[in-house]
Amino acid sequence: MSDTPEDIAAVAGVADSKPSSANQDRTPLWLDAAGKFALPVMTAIVALAGTYLTTTINEQNNLRDTINQREQAESALRTSMFRELVSPVVGDNGAMADGNRPERLALMAELLVLNFHEHFDLGPLMLYVDELADQTAANRNRLRSISRRVISRQLAGLSRAEELRKGAQCAAERTDVDIWLMSDASEPLDQPQTCDVASPADSKSAYFLCSSKQQESAVLAPFTVSSLDCQDRLTILLADLNWASNTVRVLATSAPDPKATGGPGAPEPTIPEFVEFTLSPYAMPFSDNTLLRSGNRFGIYLRQIEPSREPCTPPACDPTTRLMRLSLIWFPRDFIPPRERPTDFGEIRDALKL
User: Fold this and answer.
1) Is residue 331 a part of any domain in this protein?
2) 144, part of any domain
3) Cβ(247)–Cβ(305) under 8 Å?
4) CA 158 to CA 317: how far, in whole Å?
5) Range of the domain at 203
6) Which of 131, 160, 134, 157 is nearest to 144 (CA)?
7) pLDDT number for residue 95
8) Do the beta carbons of residue 86 and residue 105 sit within 8 Å?
9) Predicted pLDDT of residue 10
10) pTM for this one?
C-alpha cells in the first residue's frame, strides 16, 4: 500500500508538534519547582530576621534594665550615705557630744564634699565645721586642702578653652586669670588687710601687695579683665584679707567692654553691674559663680595658699612672706549649675544639638 501525499504531510505535522508539546510541559514543572523552593527560603529568611530583631531588642532592654538597676542601687546608696553623714552634723546626736566631736565632724564633712560636691552646695557646712571653737589646726588644714582639690576637679570638667573661644569677637584672654596676694608674714594673721595692685596687670595675672597698715600714698590702680566674647569688662578690687580664715572680700564692677564690636547683629551693650561677696576656701565652681545680664558667668576661687601649714620651715616655703593665689574663671556659655533652673530652652537645645 502506497502512502499518499496527504498521509505523509499529516505524519510530518504530528512529528513536528511533539517537541513543542514537550517544551510546553517542562515550563510549568520548572516554575512549580522554583515556587516550592522559594517559599521555604523566604520563610527561613523572615524567621532569621525576626529572631535577630527580637534578640537585639531583648539585649537593649536587658542593658537598659541593668543600667536602671545600677542607677537605682547607686542612688539608694548615696541617699543612705548622705543621710548618715548629714544627720550628725546638723542634728542633735548625743553620741557626738564627746571630746572627738570636732574630729568626727571634720571627717564627715570631708566625705560629704568628696562624694557629693556635684549635687549640693556644701560650702556653708564646711565653713561651719572649720569655725568650730574647739576645731584643731590640723583639721582645718585638711578641710581646706580637700576643698582646693575639689575645686581643681570641678574646673577640670569646665576646661574647654577651644569651645569658649568660638564666636569671640576680639582677642580674648585665656580662660583663667591668676590673682596673687602677698603680704609680710610678720603682720597679725587675724587683722584685716587691704590689697593694692603691685604692678600693672595684664590679661594673664595680677599681683597685689596686702597690708594691715594704712598707706596714704598708695595708688589704687584697678585690675580689669574682659570676658571671652568681649561683652563684659570686670574691675576687681580686693579688701579685708584675713590670713587666719583664708578669706578676702571681692568687689567686682561689670561694664560694657569698649573693645566689643558694633554693627548689625551685634549684642547690645550690657548694663553696668556691681557684685560683692566674701571669698572663702570653700567656694566651689559648681555652686559659687556669678551670672551677668549679658549671659556671661564668672567665678573666683582660692587655688593655692603658702605657707599651707604651720610651722613654715625653709626650703619648703618662705617664712617671711605669705602668698595666696586666686583664679578668675569664665564659664562656658552653655553651663547651667545643677541647682539653677534654665530660662532659655533654645540655648539648651542648641547645645545638645537637638
Assistant:
1) yes
2) no
3) no
4) 31
5) 170-351
6) 131
7) 47
8) no
9) 53
10) 0.68
Q: If you search the block for the grid coordinates 551677668, which residue do you land on?
A: 292
- Distance CA(337)–CA(157), nearest Å, equals 13
User: Where do we find the cell 579683665?
Assistant: 225
195 in Cβ contact with 208 (< 8 Å):
yes
In the chain, which ranges are E strands? Answer: 176-184, 194-197, 205-211, 223-226, 232-242, 247-256, 273-279, 290-291, 297-306, 321-330
Q: What single DSSP character describes residue 131? A: T
Q: Rounded distance, CA 24 to CA 28, Å?
A: 8
Cell of 11: 505524519
Task: Tell me the β-bridge partners of 297.
Answer: 291
Are 324 and 181 in contact, with CB atoms under 8 Å apart?
Answer: yes
Q: Is the pLDDT of residue 162 over 50?
A: no
**CA proximity to 184, closest of 131, 119, 241:** 241
Conformational region of residue 274, where left means phi above 0, alpha means psi within -120 to 50, and beta covers everything else? beta
d(CA 36, CA 261): 77
15: in domain: no
Domain count along the chain: 1
Element at 211 (helix H, strand E): strand 205-211
User: For the segment 223-262, what is each residue's pLDDT rounded down to a tens digit?
Assistant: 888 887 778 888 888 888 999 899 999 989 988 766 655 5
Residue 38 domain-assigned?
no
All cell numbers assigned to 121: 552646695
Task: Give me the residue label for grid cell 586666686.
Answer: 326
Question: What does DSSP assign to residue 175?
Answer: S
